[in-house]
Description:
27% of the residues lie in helices and 25% in strands. The chain is an alpha+beta fold. It has three domains: 21-59; 61-91, no CATH class; 92-192, RlpA-like domain (Barwin-like endoglucanases, Beta Barrel). It contains three helices and eight strands; from the N terminus they run αββαβββββαβ.
Amino acid sequence: MGTFNTHTDQTSTHHMPSRRERLRAFMRLKAQRRYLIGGIAALGISTAAFAGAFANESASPDVVKLGTGQASVEARPVAAYNGGTNAPLPTPSVSESPMGQGEASYYGSELAGNRTASGERFDPDRLTAAHRTLPLGSKVRVTNPRTGASVIVRINDRGPFHGNRVIDLSTAAARTIGLIRSGTGRVNLALVLG
């Protein structure tokens, strides 16, 4: 006949946390909740501060000196920003058609001598540029809104084909408008007609 094992397994009993241990765990959770709420509040405050700074930045126009007057690189005239108490706005040239703005970069001298899309060899000392769609031979006024400096370039190549850049300038053109140090920069473009 078989015998029954009456041995009970002492290792399978579960330990119930004491009241003190439960209180410590509760206090830890309460402190973590406080830190979480504080972190969320700090995030909200810093988001509001950044939004306020951004709103102030976007409300302050870029007004640059242009000839004898001033020009705004925003969609509104300069008079809209300072109550109309500035010099008269220059009349836009009828021989130019604004094309908007975008990011510009420039060709380095290491590409000197390479063939461009027009067939001519790239010369970093000439005022030329690459554009994706404008007809070869087109002339474009490129203006650096930070400095007001502008240059007229002739499109003789295709590009740029990386990032969101809209035009690649020759080294001479980039130097003329002050983009050499930064390598890239925001520019305004206008097609020169005629």
